[in-house]
């Protein structure tokens, strides 16, 4: 090769089209492993003569760690290693088709070429990603529509609320925007694993199982100064309220801009959404999963204990908890370590709940293993199994004597309506049956017993053979809360307490009722209301008692999660206590988006957002936040004047779409009385 540096044509457009990387906006070549890409370079004399290529990645490239490959020209592409095949050549330039193996380490590579005895000349760098379109790859996904959704789609819907009342909000994953790929590569280089042993860490980056686990640790700030700092206190000073984010881009950019200081603050869906962005960006098919009535079993006994005092207040005793919902991830890859039946969707969870191997990381746990109760298989099967299957025990706790009495236990409470977004549609799909057999069926109980046996819990608490203090007596009465009317922030909350006498003699019942505002984790924040009544129920009689909590009573106490827990502890004379409880999630008022005109590539179009103040007092500090990949750059923030009672506000702004196809515009509206009213609109952009 002549002394001049060769100039390289990376054929960015053509290669990107072939490799499904066209959505990245990069001047650097981005390709997927196990598939050929073409480059042309000049500055070579007689190119066919013994050209040797060198592809290397990581801090100390070596052949033993598969981070260095040297390969010469061959007549056909290799199935095993790296290879180069000449496409065409002229007197001063040559086009080469380069192929990487299906199990190549992913990341940024340096490529150079050597001719004869001269020293290697650099051709430049390129980025190599996982390839779900290629049948040899561990992340191969045969269904093309699923590849589109779980790798290429930048918009998602995350489900929240509670199992009686599921709601969903949009999220902009934005994995192809701006600098996100570079940020994802630097996340890998800041992990504890990399810091302890960079050479070994990089050599493991061919394995989605390894990277999924490492990245589940890096997305939370615990242990490693990772991306997002969790906060479940209900107070978010010094950062952003977790429910105010609308996309991952702002979070990842902030982390980088601050010199890699954790971004404040996240809760479960934020961790899951950021992990989705990172994994989709790297080419691992990934989706968010919401589990309703999700157990956090801190002591690994597959049961969750909840304690209540005599007034019916839920006590913060013990580390176990049940969340209204919890969001985690599923990623798609093979489990060569476990065997073919355990391949497919794998559970990863970046929310820092319990340590695994001394670090806040969780997964990958094979979803199939969870369904079959194989809790001993790697990784963290016991914790994930409990999230969807734990039994609930409700206790009355007397703080004066330290005595606890079992009120009742329930094995069908946990793990309801497990949800994810549909492929290619903005709908909810229920995947509960992929996690467990039908609740209450003999098979489901058998699997639960199998899991307990694997954990050596057979002799400990078993609903079929309880210890004395755990004997459940049959209650004399039954109770439930019914919702009467709408559940909306700004309106009064109307409930009915329904009590029924199950016996054929009259019963006197003293009822202590409380209502608390909570976080979505059911952590109590403020007491809203309490009351007690004494009731006599005739034999087999059912009575209803209306409860009315006025908006001004709860408005100051409500958290931005808009959740309230109502409990009634019923003390039956000469009988056992009965606990009636309900978790309620209130809806925000609606907000409306309209496009005033057609959305065309590189043409301005006006968007109008309308909001009507539904309450009879003024709302102020109104802010509108707008984002959407390929519709506008970054985030648009608009301040809106205060709104009097029942006043309607319309706000207009312009967007300039940059790419054709179905895109999503996300809007978040906040003011002093309503936090984070979210909506999204699908915008079909035409050329």
From TrEMBL:
Keywords, ordered alphabetically: Acyltransferase, Calcium, Metal-binding, Transferase
Cofactor binding notes: Binds 1 Ca(2+) ion per subunit.
Keyword Transferase applies: yes
Protein name from the UniProt record: protein-glutamine gamma-glutamyltransferase
Residue ranges of domain Transglutaminase-like in the record: 260-352
Known cofactor(s): Ca(2+)
Record InterPro entries: Ig-like_fold, Ig_E-set, Papain-like_cys_pep_sf, Transglutaminase, Transglutaminase-like, Transglutaminase-like_sf, Transglutaminase_animal, Transglutaminase_AS
Class of this enzyme: transferase
Reactions catalysed: L-glutaminyl-[protein] + L-lysyl-[protein] = [protein]-L-lysyl-N(6)-5-L-glutamyl-[protein] + NH4(+)
Coiled coil: none
Name of the gene this protein is made from: Tgm3
EC number(s) stated in the UniProt entry for this protein: 2.3.2.13
Record-annotated active site: 268, 326, 349
One term of GO molecular function: protein-glutamine gamma-glutamyltransferase activity
Sequence similarity: Belongs to the transglutaminase superfamily. Transglutaminase family.
Residues reported in the UniProt entry to bind Ca(2+): 389, 391, 439, 444
SMART domains registered for this protein in UniProt: TGc (SM00460)
Keyword Signal appears in the UniProt entry: no
């Amino acid at each position: 090769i002549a002394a001049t540096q060769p100039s390289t044509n990376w054929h960015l457009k053509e290669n990107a089209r072939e490799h499904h990387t066209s959505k990245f906006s990069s001047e650097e070549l981005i390709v997927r492993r196990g598939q050929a890409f073409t480059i042309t370079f000049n500055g070579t004399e007689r190119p066919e003569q013994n050209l040797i290529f060198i592809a290397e990645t990581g801090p100390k490239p070596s052949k033993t760690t598969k981070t260095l490959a040297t390969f010469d020209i061959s007549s056909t592409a290799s199935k095993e290693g790296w290879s180069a095949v000449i496409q065409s050549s002229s007197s001063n330039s040559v086009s080469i088709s380069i192929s990487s193996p299906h199990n190549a380490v992913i990341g940024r590579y340096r490529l150079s070429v050597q001719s004869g005895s001269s020293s290697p000349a650099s051709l430049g760098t390129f980025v190599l990603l996982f390839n779900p379109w290629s049948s040899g790859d561990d992340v191969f996904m045969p269904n093309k529509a699923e590849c589109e959704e779980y790798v290429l789609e930048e918009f998602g819907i995350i489900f929240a609320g509670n199992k009686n009342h599921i709601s969903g909000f949009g999220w902009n994953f934005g994995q192809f925007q701006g600098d996100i790929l570079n940020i994802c590569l630097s996340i890998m280089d800041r992990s504890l694993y990399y810091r302890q042993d960079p050479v070994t860490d990089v050599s493991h980056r061919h394995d989605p199982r390894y990277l999924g686990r490492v990245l589940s640790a890096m997305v939370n700030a615990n242990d490693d100064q990772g991306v997002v700092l969790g906060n479940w206190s209900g107070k978010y000073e010094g950062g952003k309220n977790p429910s105010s984010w609308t996309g991952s881009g702002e979070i990842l950019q902030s982390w980088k801009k601050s010199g890699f200081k954790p971004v404040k603050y996240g809760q479960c869906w934020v961790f899951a959404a950021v992990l989705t962005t990172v994994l989709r960006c790297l080419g691992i098919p990934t989706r968010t999963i919401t589990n309703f009535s999700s157990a956090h079993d801190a002591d690994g006994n597959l049961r969750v204990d909840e304690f209540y005092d005599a007034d019916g207040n839920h006590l913060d005793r013990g580390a176990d908890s049940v969340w209204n919902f919890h969001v985690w991830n599923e990623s798609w890859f093979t489990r060569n370590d476990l065997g073919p039946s355990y391949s497919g969707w794998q559970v990863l969870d970046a929310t820092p709940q319990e340590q695994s191997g001394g670090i806040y990381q969780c997964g990958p746990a094979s979803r199939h293993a969870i369904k079959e109760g194989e809790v001993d298989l790697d990784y963290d099967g016991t914790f994930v199994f409990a999230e969807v299957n734990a039994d609930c025990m409700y206790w009355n706790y007397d703080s004066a004597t330290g005595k606890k009495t079992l009120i009742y236990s329930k094995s069908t409470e946990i793990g309801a309506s497990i949800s994810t977004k549909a492929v290619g549609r903005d709908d909810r799909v229920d995947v509960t049956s992929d996690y467990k057999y039908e609740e209450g069926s003999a098979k489901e109980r058998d699997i639960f017993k199998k899991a307990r046996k694997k954990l050596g819990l057979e002799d400990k608490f078993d609903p079929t053979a309880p210890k004395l203090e755990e004997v459940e007596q049959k209650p004399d009465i039954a109770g439930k809360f019914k919702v009467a009317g709408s559940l909306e922030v700004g309106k009064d909350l109307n409930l009915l307490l329904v009590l029924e006498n199950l016996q054929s003699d009259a019963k006197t019942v003293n009822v202590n009722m409380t209502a608390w505002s909570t976080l979505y984790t059911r952590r109590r924040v403020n007491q809203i209301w309490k009351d007690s009544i004494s009731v006599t129920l005739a034999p087999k009689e059912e009575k209803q008692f209306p409860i009315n909590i006025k908006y001004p009573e709860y408005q100051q106490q409500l958290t931005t999660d808009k959740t309230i827990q109502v409990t009634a502890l019923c003390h039956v004379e000469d009988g056992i206590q009965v606990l009636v409880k309900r978790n309620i999630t209130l809806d925000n008022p609606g907000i409306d988006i309209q496009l005033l005109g057609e959305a065309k590539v590189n043409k301005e179009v006006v968007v109008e957002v309308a909001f009507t103040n539904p309450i009879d007092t003024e709302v102020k500090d109104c802010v509108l936040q707008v984002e959407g990949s390929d519709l506008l750059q970054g985030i648009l923030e608009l301040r809106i004047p205060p709104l009097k009672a029942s006043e309607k506000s319309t706000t207009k702004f312009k967007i300039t779409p940059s790419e054709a196809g179905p895109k999503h515009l996300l809007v978040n509206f906040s003011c002093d009385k309503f936090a984070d009213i979210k909506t999204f609109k699908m915008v079909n952009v035409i050329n």
